[in-house]
Design goal:
Blueprint lengths: L1 H22 L3 E6 L2 E6 H26 L1 H29 L3 H16 L3 H25 L3 H12 L8 H17 L3 H9 L3 H4 L2 H13 L3 H13 L5 H17 L4 H10 L2 H4 L2 H14 L6 H17 L6 H13 L10 H13 L4 H13 L3 H11 L6 H18 L2 H12 L1
Antiparallel strand pairs: 1-2
Helix pairs in contact: 3-4, 3-5, 4-5, 5-6, 5-7, 6-7, 7-8, 7-10, 8-10, 10-11, 11-12, 12-15, 13-15, 15-16, 15-17, 17-19, 18-19, 19-20, 20-21, 21-22
């Protein structure tokens, strides 16, 4: 359509010029004493048009001649850029194919060509290529186990004066170097390098994963737990993996406590969802009981441990078998040798649960142990004797036989006590 319009316009112009030229009778007279020159108007217009075209072509030719040095300079820069990009591609290909020495050599050549670019070209391409080439060379040096050379190249890549719009190249260098330090089990340097990133870059999934691993290596479980929560919030793990990792770190943070006060503070820092996991709550309760050994506040701490377990206890029928065993063992551990530690409220809760689930031998064992600590010898004997043969957990079964031996000794039945001790030993 455009071509047809142009064609019509050209024909219209040709017709107009033809009509004007055939009907024009004007004359142009030039006086140059003693001469007189008469020219037709059409010829004058034709000569003027020719002169204009000639001047235009002369100016274009002069401009092209004057532009030859800059064109030659641009051509040389284009050739350098072409060679630079080709060497960068070769370096990447060698790196991916495992030819690390060749990759390093090609990357350094690309870096040299980037340095040789003019200032205007370097501002567009050269600085980015310098950073990328140095990173590839550092990656190759890392694969060649040349740590000093790797660190030199990393430092050089970080010193490249990149514009603000290309800071992601520098962030890539920082993240890769942090990963290398993490592989060398140097978590402190890893965390220092991650701290140099911008706030936005520090919250990226890759940076958070590196930070999590570094914190785990540094045994800073509380900080690692915070990072794992942030990763789970950002979708850095699948839901199941996130729950497993957060649960493991929560347990580790509780294990860091060296006294009851530290453990209580660590427990308070956990979220409701984390405290509601059976593994976390039972570990916290067991840890608190162990830390309270020999303490004058043992009874109070045992009550606190049972308070931590109560939300899990209310969901006991919905728990898995392994979680039920952990709850039973944690509650048993919270029963002090002093009968006053097992109050009537908890004894009633255990007996009620045992009556609601009469075929649950673990609850029957727990009720027997509660009665034992309340010095209700007959009832404890009845409950433990009824469940000991059907307990699936070996630790619970061994404990039941030991306590049956203790009850037999209390009755003065040496033969029954000896038989129970033998079965506990087996």
């Amino acid at each position: 359509m455009r071509f047809a319009l142009w064609l019509l316009a050209i024909f219209a112009a040709a017709v107009g010029i033809a009509l004007f030229a055939t009907r024009s009778t004007g004359t142009v007279t030039l006086f140059w004493p003693p001469y007189r020159i008469d020219l037709s108007l059409n010829l004058v217009l034709l000569l003027l048009s020719g002169l204009f075209v000639l001047l235009y072509l002369a100016l274009r030719a002069f401009s092209a001649l004057a532009d030859l040095p800059s064109q030659a300079k641009a051509w040389r820069a284009a050739q350098r850029q072409s060679a630079m990009h080709a060497e960068l591609r070769d370096a990447m290909a060698h790196l991916l194919s495992g030819r690390f020495a060749r990759a390093k050599k090609q990357a350094l050549l690309a870096h040299q060509h980037a340095l040789a670019l003019p200032d205007d070209a370097a501002s567009k391409h050269g600085l980015e290529v310098q950073s990328m080439a140095l990173l590839i060379a550092a990656e190759s040096a890392q694969s060649l186990q040349d740590v000093p050379e790797r660190e030199r190249l990393v430092q050089a890549a970080l010193e490249v004066p990149l514009p603000k719009s290309a800071q992601h190249f520098k962030e890539g260098v920082v993240l890769r170097s942090a990963r290398w330090m993490l592989d060398e089990h140097d978590p402190s340097t890893t965390l220092k390098r991650l701290a140099t990133l911008s706030q936005g870059a520090q919250r990226r999934t890759l940076a958070l994963r590196l930070k999590l691993r570094a914190l785990q290596q540094a045994k800073r479980q509380s900080d690692a737990l915070e990072t794992a929560r942030l990763l789970a919030k950002h979708g850095g793990f699948s839901e199941q993996a996130a729950q497993s990792i957060v649960r493991s770190l929560a347990i580790s943070s509780l294990s860091e406590a060296h006294d009851a006060d530290q453990l209580t503070r660590a427990w308070g820092k956990l979220t409701d969802a984390e405290r509601g996991q059976a593994e976390v709550a039972t570990h916290a309760a067991m840890r608190l009981v162990n830390l309270s050994a020999g303490s004058p506040e043992a009874l109070e701490l045992h009550e606190r441990a049972r308070a931590w377990l109560e939300p899990i206890w209310l969901r006991y029928p919905q728990l898995s078998e392994s979680a039920q065993i952990r709850v039973v063992r944690a509650l048993e551990a919270s029963f002090s040798s002093d009968g006053a530690a097992v109050d009537h409220a908890w004894l009633a809760k255990i007996e009620t649960a045992q009556r609601q689930l009469p075929h649950d031998t673990r609850l029957q064992y727990l009720a027997g142990m509660a009665c034992l600590h309340r010095q209700l010898w007959g009832k404890a004997q009845q409950l433990l004797s009824g469940c000991v043969a059907h307990l699936g957990d070996e630790n619970l079964k061994r404990s039941a036989w030991r306590n049956l031996a203790f009850l037999a000794e209390q009755r003065g039945d040496a033969e029954a006590a000896l038989a129970a001790w033998k079965k506990a030993a087996h």
